[in-house]
Specification:
About 35% of the residues lie in helices and about 20% in strands. The chain is of the alpha/beta class. The strands form 3 sheets. Strands 5-4-1-6-11-8-12-10-9 form a 9-stranded mixed beta sheet. Strands 2-3 form a two-stranded antiparallel sheet. Strands 7-13 form a two-stranded antiparallel ribbon. The radius of gyration is 20 Å and the shape is globular. The structure holds uridine 5'-triphosphate.
Length: about 300
């Protein structure tokens, strides 16, 4: 009988970072709640998880993140208002997201890095494989990015990191993987032989950058517990994965889709235009507006 992998049922959303690249917007409001057209950034990731068959959501929050909890909670007052006014479509829209998911929250306390944020979910995740989704990487893909990764996970039965080829001048902003070029595991699927966090261009082993999606196995927790803090006092997930790589194979999966890094201002602005242009109700009038700006002129 074929070996069955343990299914991925939980998705962790680390959302306790300070979002300094987006100040002052993120002073009192989490960057995960910044809006792309009419939905907060984090909702795109939660919908991706649900569409990938994962509906147990664990959100890692910190100080000033109450808006995230309120967003995924029922709002009875608003619901009865919409009901009375007969606004059934809006009512369905706002109910859908709370009904589709089971959500749990855990506080990080201090923003000690992405690796530490994952570590604080240890007791909620328990002894099973899980996804990590960085909400500020919004990926438009069919099938959804996480589904593409779950399909790979089911074949390789080990941790899978989403990667994307980036221009060499950008490698120092990412975790970069070195891959085994001789092993062909399917289109865009690679076995990782090393990982480096934010290498200098000349030290980068490739231009395959880790983007904001991971499928991890529970042995990442002891690996993170043994991972030392970096120069800025943070526990990096990439460093934990590097340690884990000594004990088991880890895989990379190139995602077919369009990724927007909404955690920086330019990436966010691009994402707003991209998603507005994909909305049937907005695409035409918005296109006319953009054209009226005469962008080629001076
Ligand atoms: P980023 O590298 O984007 O950091 O974190 P950041 O602090 O949120 O933003 P900047 O760089 O200051 O602008 C990647 C992801 O990890 C989470 C963030 O919320 C984001 O989703 N994170 C980071 C935590 O949950 N805790 C941390 O201690 C650090």
């Amino acid at each position: 009988m074929a070996h069955m992998t343990t299914p991925v049922r939980k998705a962790v959303f680390p959302a306790a970072g300070l979002g300094t690249r987006f100040l002052p917007a993120t002073k009192a409001q989490p960057k995960e709640m910044l809006v792309l057209v009419d939905k907060p950034v984090i909702q795109y990731g939660v919908e991706e998880a649900v569409e990938s068959g994962v509906d147990n959501i664990v959100i890692v929050t910190g100080r000033g993140k109450n808006a995230i909890e309120d967003h995924f909670d029922a709002n009875i007052e608003l619901e009865s208002f919409l009901e009375q006014r007969g606004k059934t479509q809006l009512l369905e829209e706002i109910r859908k997201i709370t009904r589709l998911i089971q959500v749990a929250y855990v506080r990080q306390g201090e923003p000690l890095g992405l690796g530490h944020a994952v570590l604080v979910t240890k007791n909620l995740v328990n002894n099973e494989p899980f996804a990590v989704i960085l909400g500020d990487d919004v990926i438009d893909a069919r099938p959804p990015a996480l589904k593409q990764m779950i399909d790979v996970y089911n074949r390789v039965d080990g941790p899978v990191l989403a990667v994307e080829r980036v221009p060499m001048e950008d490698v120092s902003s990412y975790g970069i993987v070195a891959i085994d070029e001789s092993a062909e595991l399917g289109p865009g699927v690679h076995r990782i032989v090393d990982l480096v966090e934010k290498p200098k261009r000349e030290d980068a082993p490739s231009n395959l950058a880790i983007i904001g999606r991971y499928i991890l196995t529970p042995d990442i927790f002891p690996a993170l517990e043994e991972t030392a803090r970096d120069g800025s006092g943070e526990i990096q997930l990439t460093d934990g994965l590097r340690r884990l790589l000594k004990t088991r194979p880890i895989y990379a999966c190139e995602i077919n889709g369009v990724r927007h890094d909404t955690g920086n201002k330019l990436g966010f602005l691009k994402a707003v235009v991209y998603f507005a242009m994909r909305r049937p109700d907005l695409a035409e009038p918005f296109r006319r507006y953009l054209e009226s700006l005469n962008l080629n002129g001076h």
